[in-house]
Specification:
The complex is a heterodimer of chains A (416) and B (92). Chain A contains ten helices and 18 strands. Chain A has 416 residues and is an alpha/beta fold. Chain A folds into two domains: 210 residues, FAD/NAD(P)-binding domain (3-Layer(bba) Sandwich), CATH 3.50.50.60; 151 residues, D-Amino Acid Oxidase, subunit A, domain 2 (D-Amino Acid Oxidase, Chain A, domain 2, 2-Layer Sandwich). In chain A, a hairpin with a 5-residue loop joins strand 17 and strand 18. Chain A starts with a helix and ends in a 16-residue tail after the last helix. In chain B, the strands form two sheets. In chain B, strands 3-4-5-6 form a four-stranded antiparallel beta sheet. In chain B, strands 1-2 form a two-stranded antiparallel ribbon. The longest helix of chain B is centred in the middle third of the chain and has 9 residues. The N and C termini of chain B lie far apart (34 Å). The mean pLDDT of chain B is 91. Classes of the chains: A alpha/beta (416), B alpha+beta (92). Chain A: Its cofactor is FMN; FAD.
Chain lengths: 416, 92
């Protein structure tokens, strides 16, 4: 069923009793051309673009939980393409362009809201760094505006401009950045893929990858053996565990990242604002809650919950930036497991097995990359060659010394 | 994550006193070859379960520890002083 104003009206007149489920609940077939392990944003987007753009429709997405239960429903919903490095920037800009047309493309309201992303800077050195980043963005055809203190003050008068330690000097603004309703992204891609024949199989955990003579033959799952022509891994925080089933050791550690939402407030923050002197980013949802987060907790974790010390740290950073947050009550917090790579950049590549493909290492930047990640992974799965904006995300870049380290932290995942 | 971390010198101490370095791996010898060094610097087992990590008791005794911790339940099984435990390895 195509969603439109007319379908809304007709279904409304019928008492909303004739809506069909957005996707089927199929039992797995014995064999698929492509199986994707992981029904998160990236896995669903991959299936969607495989079916829509590359004509591969005999596809299954295997999800151990339910659609939307993982990181795609556990992030702070920010989209942006304000990257510095050559290998990253065109890819994230492709993602931004796909976000811009996404709702029309998959016929689902994902509430894409380009309300701007502002990164504050607090020192001359940081201004230089942001100027450089803004220039790099512009050279790649991405919008970037460097705002001075007065311009930021006009936008956001309630920030702590004269903080003794971290006075706000200005900010780098990407107007096309913003937020997207994350659940709707999962649902929209799931529905779009399902409509084109993809089987989305929920509550189906992969327990073993069967391979013979360097070729994957299929996967053992909690719903039995399923054969496949090609296997794509998009298991986010569990990437290492799934890759291990194929004898692959990854340059990845799993870490927990927390996010928070406050009680509903009147309109307060229009876009996304990030603190340059600590790790804190905040936006306001359409319901009025402030959605915010900070840094990862800093230790390897597979538990989708974080530590109180990090909660306190995030709250302190937030209050240093916006003093009036001190009286805001936090309603909920949650944790997601990030596949933190050794250089802070992702991997979309082939592996040592002929028909096994890997999509991993998104660190805590995976949500904004969802459309491009799906598109590029689908390109790789369908054609066997990397999409032109994703040529730097190779698995062997660590061996070849071609790291993509945006932050310059080195091989220390808990610092990325 | 447990709020209290056992330190062999200071007893149970708040987690915030510690700095976490990451996987406690055996450092290869200088002539071990590129592959061994690649593995050591970049590749990780990243298990769901027991894991040995280097922790520094930054705001306490300032000793480097190896903390054995479960990455799914966050229970800490054991901690030991890196340098001292190596000494006892040499002198049985």
């Amino acid at each position: 069923m195509r969603y439109s104003a007319l379908s809304l009206l007709l279904n409304g007149l019928r008492g909303n009793k004739t809506w069909l489920p957005a996707w089927r609940q199929p039992e797995p077939k014995p064999h698929y051309d492509v199986i994707i392990v992981g029904g998160g944003g990236h896995g669903l987007a991959t299936a969607y673009y495989l079916a829509k753009e590359f004509g591969v429709t005999n596809v299954a997405v295997l999800e151990k939980g339910y659609i939307g239960s993982g990181n795609v429903g556990r992030n702070t919903t920010i989209i942006r393409s304000n990257y510095l490095l050559e290998g990253n920037n065109p890819f994230y800009e492709l993602s931004m362009k796909l976000w811009e047309g996404l709702e029309q493309d998959f016929n689902f309201n994902a509430m894409v809201s380009q309300r701007g992303v502002l990164n504050l800077f607090h020192s001359d050195a940081q201004r230089d760094a942001y100027t450089r980043r803004g220039n790099a963005m512009r050279l790649h055809g991405v919008d970037a505006d460097l705002l001075d203190r007065a311009a930021v003050r006009q936008m956001l008068p309630f920030l702590d401009y004269d903080n003794a330690r971290f006075p706000i000097q200005g900010g780098l603004l990407q107007k096309r950045g913003g937020t997207v309703r994350h659940d709707a992204v999962a649902w929209g891609y799931a529905r779009g893929a399902d409509m084109r024949g993809v089987d989305i199989i929920q509550n189906c955990e992969v327990t073993c990858i069967r391979h013979q003579n360097g070729v994957v033959t299929g996967v053992e799952t909690t719903k039995g053996f399923i054969g496949c022509g090609k296997l794509g891994l998009a298991a986010a925080g569990n990437s290492s565990r799934v890759a291990e089933m194929a004898g692959l050791k990854l340059p990845i550690e799993s870490h927990v990242l927390q996010a928070f939402v406050s009680e509903g407030l009147k309109p307060f923050i229009n876009g996304v604002v990030t603190f340059g002197a600590g790790h804190f980013y905040v936006s306001q949802s359409d319901k009025g809650g402030l959605v915010f987060g900070g840094d990862i907790d800093g230790y390897n974790s597979y538990a989708q919950r974080g530590n109180l010390a990090t909660v306190e740290h995030v709250a302190e950073a937030g209050k240093a930036m916006i003093p009036s947050l001190s009286r805001v009550r936090v309603l909920r917090s949650w944790g997601g497991i990030m596949d933190m790579s050794m250089d802070g950049s992702p991997i979309i590549d082939r592996t040592h097995l002929d028909n096994l493909y890997l999509n991993a290492g998104w660190c805590y930047g995976g949500f904004k990359a969802t459309p491009a990640s799906g598109f590029c992974f689908a390109h790789l799965l369908a054609r066997g060659t990397p999409q032109e904006t994703a040529t730097a995300f190779r698995l062997d870049r660590f061996t070849r010394g071609l790291m993509l380290d945006e932050k310059g932290q080195g091989a220390q995942p808990n610092l990325h | 994550m447990a709020s209290l971390v056992p330190c062999p010198h200071c007893g149970a101490r708040p987690k915030e006193e510690f700095t976490i370095k990451g996987a406690a791996l055996a450092r290869p010898t200088p002539d071990a070859g590129t592959e061994a060094w690649m593995d050591y610097v970049y590749l990780r087992d990243n298990p769901r379960g027991l894991y040995e990590e280097y922790w520094h008791h930054t705001s306490g005794c300032r000793r480097w520890l190896v903390v054995t911790r479960d990455t799914a339940t966050h229970d800490i099984e054991h901690s030991r002083d890196v340098a001292l435990s190596q000494l006892t390895d040499i002198r049985p």
